[in-house]
């Protein structure tokens, strides 16, 4: 184990050097989070398909339980049960548009993880930083349970549990638990837990802050203990179901899956689940007693339970939907937690946008009208009114609006349009619009993936370290 | 599948060019043996341990269901359910003794397989050819079901089912079904099915030929059909038991295994099996209702059923022991088939040597006295007398002896000594003599292996081809 422990120390030191200005010491925060014994227990795995440029390089790392697809290089890092999904990387020859620039992509984009420790983290999407088109880097970074690093290069950062950094390049930042940041480029910031921040410089700025005392019921994290709260309890309670999925090599699909849909073999499907055409269910998704209509998707770490998704629904990474009826074309952002009750269903009307990191947790039936924008903490009708607006009304904002804990500045139209375009892009990329011929996406391309497993040295000084592994076409 | 089919054609052509002088066309023989659909169905796997120098390079090959350990490079080849076990390769710095030469080993020995098609073949042991110490090559070679390539570099050869080439470098040879060759160096030979040939040039020459009409009941192979006969029926009947073993990632040992023994997780262990100290059970071994005493071993493709092995028993690759009681220190050579019956047990006395490729198949109880040498086909007491001698008497041969279908020339002492030394070496290498401190061998070193799985492209032109994979420390 010697090398594994040395590697851990090395990573912590490097991150702390980066965060010295913020006076953030990552060591007490993560030192007990994953016992080294756990790091030797689980195999890592990578996908092989003809549709994804294959170039995986693993060096001097532990990859326990992690998943890789596409072009990815990992060096001197600890990746614990993380997903590195490189199926939307830019390709050589692509032309990247940024403002007035048309920048040619010089070589296939690569996700490059160095000197980092990622715990149950999702890395996905292509990076949008025009400064580093070919290299989506994650360096000197520690991230914790269910963090999303979404198209966001990171250098010298710490991400708290259930945080998301989206299409944002960050340097020397601390992202608090359940904070969501989509801000283009940030550096030397300490973002408070429960901040939801969407900024397009010169265009708009959306900012919401969870009341901390309420947020702590859902997610609370302090040095010395693992993350706590409803979010953790919820996933821990369903952990066992994944064991069988990971312990069997060939698994039969427990439900019938249309030829146009894809159900990842590492997803958990409980009884009474229906999967429609063009549906995409990613690995580590959990479906139970639910119906996914045409073109709906369930991304990594999603839980959809006792719910109906009418169609073209985006359920972004880590979102949970329980006892709910979702209309057509409803978007549910990252790590949102939407919980109705068996006797108090949650209904969300068509074409609504549930912002990333939204909590709807009700005891009485609640209906979100069609075409709504919802954010923040909603536990009843009053909170819904405080934390939502119709997209139509939101579009009318010209300069500024303050509502409850939310402050918006800039153009509402830009904001709403940006969201809608993005939702359209996600659906398109996922293959929701596939017509049997055109608009093929992940749902059609990811149907037939071969998975290879890799494991570390089982004993000796190198126990827990993976050998150098290079996989190329 | 295009590339896979092109690769097949390419290999066949290369082998045929090598075998043109023998007028042997390998194409009709193997063209239907493994449907290409089968080649995409099974994962390959390789072992990671701190005890075996790790250097695996796979390029432009299909490795379906095959296993790899140690230092090995595979290029332009099809390996179907084969075992490439590189745990006895020579190491850099070793001194290799050959006659009056002391040859330093320049670099770690590597098993190098190029342009070959191996079906259910075992490749093991280090090559004994002083001309190629660092490279155990298998080139332009086709081998079929349950062939053993044991320390035998091969260039331009065809091996029939259940054949074994042992410590022999071969060029442009055809080895018939169930032929056993241990002859140092051979070229441009067509060895008949059922030949058992052990030669040490200048020292001795042992030659036995199975009566073909009898052998055909056990193994018969002609172009256009898969191998047939009792041997094939026997393994096919037990095939299903392996499915579970290969379909589960973490498997619990079904029996208690002493700390000094090793039971491979890809072996099948049926109820009422006892495993003693220092026992080695390799992958693809099958044990049922049997007892393996201290230091006994069961190598790849062995079946031990309703039998007792007293201790220090070598059960070489592919040997089968059914309804038998084996005394201490009994050696059973490659692919031997020893079948008693529930009401007619086979007893083999201590320190006997059952030659490779021996068939003992009885309907009435039979006892082989201690210290015997047994060869060929033995179905009753008469055939036992025709096809065995005491090792003591055999040692007395000075020039020549002919007995039944067996002809021996040379020194009986040399022959017996060579066998006994080899048996001692095998037991030593396998860890049979481990005393808790000294004499550690495979049984102690192979206890804790991590297995990684690899799979081919699931579709497209490259369907069935494995990506390039390089694994290094």
Provide a short characterization of the protein structure:
With 473 residues, chain A is α/β, with parallel strands linked by helices. Chain A contains nine helices and 49 strands.
Describe, in plain words, how this protein is organized in 3D.
- The structure is a homodimer of 473-residue chains.
- In chain A, strand 23 and strand 24 (204-209) form a beta hairpin.
- With 473 residues, chain A is α/β, with parallel strands linked by helices.
- Chain A is 17% helix and 33% strand.
- The first copy, chain A, has two domains: 2-235 and 449-471, UDP N-Acetylglucosamine Acyltransferase, domain 1 (3 Solenoid); 260-395 and 412-445, UDP N-Acetylglucosamine Acyltransferase, domain 1, CATH 2.160.10.
- In chain A, the strands form eight sheets. Chain A has a twelve-stranded mixed β-sheet, covered by helices on one side.
- Chains A and B meet through strand 48 and strand 49 of A and strand 48 and strand 49 of B.
- Chains A, B: It comes from Desulfosarcina alkanivorans.
- Chains A, B: InterPro entries: Hexapep_loop, Trimer_LpxA-like_sf.
- Chains A, B: Pfam families: Hexapep_loop.
- Chains A, B: This is Transferase.
Domain unit count of chain A: 2
Which parts of chain A are unreliable, with pLDDT below 50 for 5 consecutive residues or more?
none
Oligomer: homodimer
Described by the principal axes of the CA atoms, the overall outline of chain A is globular
Query: What fold name stands as the CATH topology of the largest domain in chain A?
Result: UDP N-Acetylglucosamine Acyltransferase, domain 1
Task: Going across the biggest sheet of chain A, name each strand in turn.
Answer: 46-47-24-23-20-17-14-11-6-3-1-48
């Amino acid at each position: 184990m010697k090398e594994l422990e040395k590697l851990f120390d090395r990573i912590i030191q490097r991150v702390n050097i980066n965060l010295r200005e913020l006076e953030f010491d990552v060591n007490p925060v993560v030192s007990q989070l994953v016992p080294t014994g756990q790091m030797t227990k689980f195999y890592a795995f990578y996908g092989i398909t003809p549709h994804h440029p294959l170039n995986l390089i693993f060096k001097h790392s532990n990859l326990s339980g992690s998943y890789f697809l596409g072009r990815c290089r990992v060096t001197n890092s600890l990746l614990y049960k993380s997903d590195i999904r490189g199926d939307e990387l830019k390709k050589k020859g692509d032309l990247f548009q940024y403002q007035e620039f048309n920048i040619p992509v010089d070589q296939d984009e690569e996700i490059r993880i160095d000197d980092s420790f990622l715990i149950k983290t999702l890395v996905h999407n292509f990076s949008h930083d025009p400064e580093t088109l070919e290299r989506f880097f994650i360096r000197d970074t520690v991230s914790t349970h269910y963090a999303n690093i979404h198209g966001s290069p990171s250098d010298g950062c710490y991400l708290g549990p259930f945080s998301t950094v989206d299409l944002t390049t960050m340097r020397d930042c601390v992202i608090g638990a359940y904070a969501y940041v989509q801000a283009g480029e940030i550096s030397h910031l300490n973002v408070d837990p429960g901040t939801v921040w969407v900024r397009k410089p010169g265009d708009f700025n959306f900012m919401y802050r969870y009341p901390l005392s309420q947020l702590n019921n859902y997610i609370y994290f302090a040095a010395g203990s693992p993350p706590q709260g409803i979010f953790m309890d919820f996933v821990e309670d369903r952990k066992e179901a994944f064991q069988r999925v990971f312990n069997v090599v060939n698994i039969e699909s427990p439900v019938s899956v249309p030829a146009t849909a894809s159900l990842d073999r590492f997803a958990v499907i409980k009884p009474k689940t229906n999967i429609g055409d063009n549906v995409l269910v990613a690995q580590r998704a959990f479906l139970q007693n639910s119906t996914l209509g045409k073109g709906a998707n369930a991304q990594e770490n999603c839980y959809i339970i006792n719910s109906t998704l009418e169609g073209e629904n985006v359920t972004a990474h880590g979102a949970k939907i329980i006892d709910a009826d979702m209309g057509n074309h409803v978007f549910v952002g990252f790590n949102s937690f939407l919980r109705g009750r068996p006797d108090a269903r949650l209904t969300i009307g068509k074409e609504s946008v549930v912002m990333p990191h939204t909590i709807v947790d009700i005891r009485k039936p609640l209906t979100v009208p069609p075409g709504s924008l919802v954010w923040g903490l909603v536990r009843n009708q009053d909170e819904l009114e405080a934390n939502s607006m119709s997209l139509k009304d939101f579009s009318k904002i010209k300069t500024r609006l303050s509502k409850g804990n939310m402050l918006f500045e800039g153009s509402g139209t830009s904001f709403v349009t940006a969201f809608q375009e993005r939702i359209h892009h996600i659906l398109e990329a996922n293959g929701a619009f596939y017509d049997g011929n055109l608009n093929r996406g992940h749902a059609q391309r990811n149907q037939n993936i071969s998975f290879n497993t890799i494991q570390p040295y089982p004993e000796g000084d190198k126990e827990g370290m993976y050998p150098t592994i290079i996989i190329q076409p």
